[in-house]
From TrEMBL:
Name listed for the protein in its UniProt record: Cleavage/polyadenylation specificity factor A subunit N-terminal domain-containing protein
Comp. bias regions, Basic and acidic residues: 98-107
Lineage: Eukaryota, Fungi, Dikarya, Ascomycota, Pezizomycotina
Region called Disordered, residue ranges: 92-127
Species annotation: Fusarium oxysporum f. sp. raphani
């Protein structure tokens, strides 16, 4: 008997059995699943039931389990955020120009002025039908929450160790509270946690735990403020610090421990003091007291050349001091560290404060990597290469503005050394240590997700602990215990870096979305029972915080002008009207049926403490009727509105409007960009088109890009996306009336861009020191990045570069076209040469300044970088000579000075510089 599963696009699943003898089919409907099925449908077999795996081009897919006499049960969701029709960021400045509040920051300087504590967030409209959503686009590593519980107090730090007592496996969880410690016992299946009472607990619960460690002999060492506890499976001991050190009392402030050594710091009469304690089975003895320099803020232990050393961070005369001691108390080195200032006048922003935490990563028996966090958000990485402990290389990076705390990884992550850092309420993992720069090159954000609550925002994390083994049992996975205020979360991570979307269900097909600068919410236009309506989504909670009202401000299902069956919202705009020096914010809504509404919003008091922290109400203030054609777009200034109805006085409908003084830049659906002069001389004269494109383009969207405002007329460049998966960059000759645009660049893309947006979306560590390095340019005057989204949900990044850098990158692209490994489907001269060795074909490598050649394919360069292909590419034709020549031309040769004088080593330096440039220009903007 054969069994066939048949799936319809609308989600109906049919089960067909065919008898092998009579070939008679038996058809039975299994039920309907709430997803679109078009691109993927297959079956898998479980021990107890069949499993269906579905996917579509509209909304998320899923994995479903078939249960007898019941509808299919969804097991998990497969993320999918297509189709996308709109994109928005939380950037508060929509223009390519600098924000008026930041006008005092000169755009001439090389370094970026981006010191925002938080990156702008990216949201897009996703899907069609009842499963439609608003999706936040995030990039990094997913941390899947397996267990979560809420403690009654704020937890400062936690540890989780496996234990085995009376033949039963389990875990001890130590929770460090502000003034005490709680200890929980979990069974192996993590169910029914028990809090240990102080009487029955082998740990010190009366004071705060400051360090904990499990030795290779499974002995747990707990260091609290007052004592050190040694806990083995069958015995335990507790040692008072004052008694061990021969003092009347001793209150430890910081501590660190290894298998047989415990070091604690305390505040003495005049300065901080370090005490070295030795562990011998269940005994603890005092070894050495060290008078430390300054006031200790963190301590750590590390081994180098079979010797153990103490590294102490302290503060002296207001400056952070880093000191290395031997266990006998000998001072090995002591240095005050501060980051090098990129430009003068930035001392306040880049000043480094006291160290907060330290950890050691042992690369080899001799080489040690030390990592320290600071109160000012800096990350300090130290490489000790050999026996000479006093001489080490050091790097300082700023990854945030709040205190940075570092936490060790229990093992290699994807075969690489790694550690975790908490800063600005977010958790990141650092990998790819580079001895050349003494730093970890790859920094990746970790996002905690809950499969049962896809709209949940990643919780703020202030501490993390990495377990020795993965609780999931999967190889290459790591289990972490994360702390978020009073919440404790157990999560599982694995080395896959990619999209981590967050989905906020809307219940109807979305059409437009904007970010309200006034109310700090996402205003979404979507359908509800085939009627257009608005939702005001809080970005943090994902909750709709607004309710509709009628003209009397009484609750209503729809505001006046919306809720008409078959109508669609085409335009959304936040307009700030100025009258008598006062600002009046409104939301402007335009529809397919020719309606225009001016919507007012007001804040209400929350009805209860348990509900949303804020509540808004919106209603129609003014409604303009009488139009039979769709109103696609609307824009406003301080005194009025400008909107386009149908294609009145235009060759095709206007989809985007932008006002520049008395000029309007109008993007039309089928006739590219047009500039219209609105300053008419009399009532009898009409606005006229004064600039237009040289060719007719079927367009998608347009955005302006410009490096600086310092040279009027040079910038911006208007980038227009086309319906044929291409784009064009045009320059508008503002000073020459009735002159056509100058087309600067054209290019092809994998898919058509549906919407462009700008935003400061880079992580802090990528944005804080972003410079015009290697002849790169800023994409906007306020150093934002330009993003574009396609209808299939793919996100694209656009950047401006100078001509010298273009020449170098275009050479690599031309070389890559000749390599079958990188471009196997390009019919290049190499493939022709292989097919006919007698042909004499020299590849055309030198870049030509045609507009079609001015676009650099970043995806192709990324393949070259990932494959480390430069060494082979430069062997093609005159590649190495052009490669070195073009590198010499970048920024007047400051990066290659002396390279040609070093003989055979010079070529290696050129190649290394080429990789550095590729890494820099290909850094992701999310």
């Amino acid at each position: 008997m054969d069994v066939i599963y048949l799936a319809r696009e609308d989600g109906v699943i049919a089960h067909i059995e065919i008898d092998s003898r009579d070939l008679v089919p038996t058809v039975m409907t299994l039920g309907t699943i709430s997803t679109n099925i078009t691109t993927a449908f297959t079956t898998a077999y479980d021990v107890f039931s069949d499993v269906l795996i579905t996917g579509g081009d509209s909304g998320p897919g899923g994995i479903w389990k078939l249960i007898p006499r019941k509808d299919p049960q969804q097991v998990s969701v497969i993320p999918n955020w297509s189709p996308v029709v709109d994109l928005v960021t939380t950037d508060t400045n929509p223009s390519w120009r600098s924000d008026s509040k930041r006008k005092d920051l000169s755009t001439k300087r090389k370094v970026s002025s981006n010191s925002r504590p938080k990156s702008d967030r990216i949201f897009c409209t996703s899907g069609r039908g009842p499963r439609s959503s608003l999706t936040e686009l995030r990039w990094g590593i997913q941390a899947r929450i397996g267990l979560e519980f809420d403690h009654d107090q704020h937890v400062r730090q936690s540890w989780m160790f496996p234990v085995e007592a009376q033949g039963e496996r389990g875990f001890y969880v130590i929770l460090s509270l502000p003034h005490s410690t709680d200890v929980l016992h979990f069974p192996a299946d993590l169910n029914n946690a028990n809090a240990l009472s102080p009487e029955a607990c082998p740990f010190d619960t009366s004071s705060r735990t400051i360090s904990a460690f499990q030795t290779e002999q499974t002995v747990i060492i707990q260091v609290s403020e007052t004592s050190t506890c040694l806990v083995a499976p069958t015995q335990s001991s507790r040692h008072n610090h004052g008694e061990v050190c021969g003092k009347s009392s001793l209150l430890a402030e910081h501590a660190c421990c290894t298998d047989d050594i415990v070091v604690i710091s305390s505040h003495g009469a005049n300065a901080s003091q370090l005490d070295v304690l030795l562990v011998d089975q269940m005994n603890l003895t005092h070894s050495t007291s060290i008078d430390a320099k300054g006031e200790i803020t963190c301590i750590g232990l590390f081994k180098a050349s079979a010797q153990t050393y103490i590294i102490a961070g302290s503060v002296t005369e207001g400056l952070p001091l880093l000191t290395i001691y031997s266990l006998a108390g000998l001072e090995i080195s002591s240095n005050v560290t501060q980051p090098d200032l990129v430009t003068p006048g930035q001392e306040g922003h880049f000043h480094m404060e006291a160290y907060t935490s330290v950890l050691a990563i042992h690369d080899t028996a001799e080489k040690v990597i030390l990592v320290l966090g600071t109160r000012s958000g800096h990350l300090v990485t130290i490489l000790i290469p050999g026996e000479d402990i006093a001489h080490y290389s050091l790097s300082i990076e700023q990854i945030g503005i709040s205190p940075t705390n570092v936490f060790p990884a229990s093992s290699l992550f994807d075969g690489k050394h790694a550690f975790f850092a908490c800063c600005d309420n977010s958790l990141s993992i650092m990998t790819d240590f580079s001895p050349k720069g003494s730093r970890f090159k790859t920094k990746t954000r970790i996002w905690a997700t809950d499969s049962n609550e896809p709209s949940m925002s990643s919780p703020p994390v202030h501490a993390a602990f990495c377990l020795e083994g993965s609780l999931s049992g999967y190889q290459r996975h790591m289990s972490l215990m994360l702390l978020s205020g009073t919440r404790v979360l157990l999560v599982d991570i694995w080395p896959h870096v990619g999209p981590v979307p967050r989905s906020i269900l809307l219940g109807g097909t979305p059409m437009r979305v904007i970010f309200s600068q006034i109310w700090k919410v996402l205003v979404v236009a979507h359908l509800k029972d085939d009627r257009p309506t608005l939702s005001f989504i809080d970005p943090e909670s994902g909750v709709n915080v607004a309710t509709a009202a009628n003209k009397d401000k009484q609750p209503s299902d729809y505001i006046s002008g919306l809720g008409h069956p078959g109508d669609r919202i085409f335009g959304l705009y936040e307009w700030t009207y100025v009258k008598d020096g006062k600002l009046f914010p409104f939301i402007i809504v335009t529809t397919q049926h020719g309606r225009l509404m001016i919507v007012s919003v007001t804040a209400l008091k929350p009805e209860s403490d348990d509900g949303p922290t804020r509540k808004l109400q919106y209603w129609t203030r003014y409604k303009k009727k009488g139009f039979a054609e769709p109103i696609y777009t609307v824009v406003g200034d301080d005194v009025g509105l400008l909107f386009c109805v149908g294609k009145f006085r235009l060759d095709s409908p206007a989809t985007t409007l932008r006002v520049e003084g008395t000029k309007a830049c109008v993007l039309t659906a089928q006739h590219s960009l047009q500039v219209i002069d609105l300053n008419v001389e009399s009532e009898n004269s009409d606005p006229s088109i004064i600039h237009s494109d040289r060719v007719t383009r079927f367009t998608g969207h347009v955005i302006e890009m410009g490096d600086s405002e310092e040279e009027p007329g040079k910038w911006p460049l208007s980038v227009i996306s086309t319906a044929q998966a291409g784009f064009a960059g045009v320059w508008i000759p503002w000073s020459q009336r009735h002159k056509e645009f100058e087309v600067v660049v054209t290019g092809s893309l994998p898919t058509s861009i549906r919407r462009f947006r700008k935003g400061h979306t880079r992580p802090f560590w990528s944005a804080v020191d972003r410079q015009r390095r290697y002849n790169t340019l800023f994409s906007t005057a306020d150093q934002a990045d330009i993003l574009g989204v396609s209808i299939d949900g793919s996100l694209h990044q656009f950047s401006l570069i100078g001509l010298d850098l273009w020449r170098f990158l275009r050479l690599i692209q031309n070389l890559a076209y000749q390599d079958k490994k990188i471009c196997p489907f390009v019919r290049n001269s190499q493939s022709l040469r292989d097919s006919d060795p007698g042909m004499d074909l020299d590849p055309e490598l030198e870049p030509q300044r045609f507009r079609e050649m001015m676009h650099i394919d970043g995806d192709l360069l990324k393949r070259c970088l990932d494959m480390s292909a430069l060494e082979e590419l430069v062997l093609i034709g005159d590649g190495i000579d052009l490669f070195c020549e073009y590198l010499d031309g970048i920024d007047d040769g400051i990066y290659t000075e002396g390279f040609r004088e070093t003989g055979s080593q010079g070529r290696k330096k050129y190649i290394e510089l080429g990789y550095e440039i590729l890494e820099y220009v290909l850094t992701l903007a999310i």
